[in-house]
Amino acid sequence: MKAKTFVFLLCFAVIVNSYAQQDNDEETNYEETNYSVLCLIYEQKPLFVDCKDLGWDKQFQCFEEQLEKHIKTHFRYPKKALEEGIQGRVVVDFTVQIDGTVKILKITGTDEELKAAARSVIESLPRLIPGKKYGKPIAVTFSCPINFKLTKN
User: Cβ distance 100 to 130 under 8 Å?
Assistant: First the structure.
């Protein structure tokens, strides 16, 4: 019974995720290129080097923490957006390729300056340990929302 429930939930998650990854026509202009088929079921997610020695159950949390740390460390609010008081949310969809490099797929947001800053911070990610399926490296896609919010001083 548990196995049937697990399979049902897994299938449901795959279906929901496939609808969530549909293209939106109002996206930034970027060069479209072919990329490898993305995998939703894998043995190991991509990892930062600092996360590789942790147990499987801690690796995802470590990945999220390292990604957040990287964004906070390397993020620079665009000067023009800062001067004009522009705020907003940008979502960067990217793939960790089989060689561990990051490839931007799509950037969604309302302001070009904010989208450029989000692209820059994600492109500056270090080479990661790629995800694996059946012991072989695979490309894995992530969606990273970045909130640009000014604080009042």
Answer: yes
Token output for 130: 């790629």
Please give the structure tokens belonging to residue 21: 């990854």
Amino acid at 97: Q
Buried b (16+ CB within 10 A) or exposed e, 111-134: bebbbbbbbebbeebeebbbbbee
pLDDT in tens, the chain (153 residues): 444 433 344 443 444 344 344 444 333 333 333 334 444 566 778 989 988 888 888 888 899 999 999 999 998 889 999 899 999 999 999 999 999 999 999 999 989 999 999 999 999 999 999 998 888 999 999 999 998 888 876
Q: What is the DSSP letter of 54?
A: S
**Distance separating alpha carbons of residues 59 and 80, to the nearest angstrom:** 37
pTM as predicted? 0.68
Cα dihedral sign, 37-38-40-42: positive
Angle between helices 56-74 and 112-123 (to 10 degrees): 130
Helix (H, G, I), strand (E, B) or coil at 121: helix
- Both structure tokens of 40: 């939703």
